[in-house]
Structures are given as C-alpha cells and as structure tokens.
Amino acid sequence: MTGLSTAFGFASTILDKIWPPAADPTKKLEATAAIELALRERDNQVIDAQREIIVAEMNQGDNFTKRARPAVVYMGLIFIALVHVLFPIMMSLITIFKFTSLTPTQLTELTNLAKISLPSEFWLAWGSVISIWSVGRSMEKRGAVNKIIQTITGARK
Fold first, then answer.
1. Helix, strand, or coil here: 111?
2. Which pLDDT belongs to residue 3?
3. What distance in Å separates the CA atoms of residue 114 and residue 117, rounded to the nearest whole number?
4. Mean pLDDT (10-residue bins), the chain, 157 residues
5. pLDDT of residue 6
6. What is the spatial distance between Cα 136 and Cα 138, in angstroms, rounded to a whole number?
7. CA nearest 90: which of 115, 67, 57, 64?
C-alpha cells in the first residue's frame, strides 16, 4: 500500500503545482488518479524488463560469456586478498612465532613475498573492467538497451 500512496502523493504534488486553485476538485482527483495509473504502468514495465533480462541471462547458452566478466572480478579479488591480506598475515605469523626451522634463505624469500604489491597496471585494468561492467549491468537491469550496453555486458539480442 505504501507504493500506491507514494505514487498517488507524487501525482497529487504534480497537480498541485500546475492545477489552478479555482478548478473543480473532482476533475483534479480524476487527473491525479490517471497520473497515478500511468506511473504504476511505467513501474510495471520496468519490472517486466528487468525480469526479461534476468531470464535471458539464465538461458544464455554461452557459458564463457556469462561468466567471463565475473571471473575477472573474482580473480582480481583473489589477487588482492593474497597480496594484501594473506601474505602480510603469513609474514606476521612468521615474525611472531620465529620459526627456527626456516633457513635464512627461506626467511628472505618469505620476506620478499610479503613485500609484493600489485602493479598500477593491475589496478588500472581491473578497476576499468569493474567500473565499466558495473555501469553497463546497472543500466541493463534498468531496461536500457543499446549497442554499447550489449558490448559491455556480452548480451546478444
């Protein structure tokens, strides 16, 4: 009921701004109801378009295209977790517990491993892919369809 009252309130607000105060209140109520109906129909069309997009994605036969962009996202997250979380934790544990069974060479190699950082090219490429894909998916889910969005998301129409 909240959605209907919001749409009705929005329609009423529009009419309050453009409707003359001396006009017939019955006609104003009819116009408000007509605007509210149009808003509800538009919302239903948007929801239907989103549903069609999701169903089309699930029925798509090309498994690589379906999962290629998410794979880039997940692999990037794995690299970030390794380099900025796992390796530093591992080095901290080695430092805290002072593993005596490690040779100086092994300790040096582990220290170098903890100093690894992802290059700026990774951040530029991964950030670009994530940004473009996220914007394209958001626009696609809102019902926008054009060649650019289809290229970004891998959709075929």
1. helix
2. 46
3. 8
4. 56 72 77 81 86 75 64 87 86 74 78 82 90 79 75 66
5. 66
6. 5
7. 115
DSSP 127-156: HHHHHHHHHHHHHHHTT---HHHHHHHT--
CA torsion through residues 43, 1, 14, 35, sign:
positive
Say how many residues make up the chain. 157
CA atoms within 13 A on the CB side of 78: 6
Angle between helices 120-141 and 25-59 (to 10 degrees): 130
Please count the other Cβ atoms lying within 10 Å of the Cβ belonging to residue 36: 19
Going by C-beta distance under 8 Å and a sequence separation of 6 or more, which residues neighbour residue 14?
A: 35
Assign 3-state DSSP to the chain and report helix, strand, coil percentages, each to 5: 80, 0, 20
Q: How far apart are CA 52 and CA 143, in angstroms?
A: 9
| pLDDT recorded at residue 132 | 83
Residues 110, 97: Cα–Cα separation, whole Å: 14
User: How high is the pLDDT of residue 4?
Assistant: 47
Give yes or no for a contact between 103 and 77, defined as CB atoms under 8 angstroms apart.
no
Closest to 137 in 3D by CA, of 125, 149, 146: 149
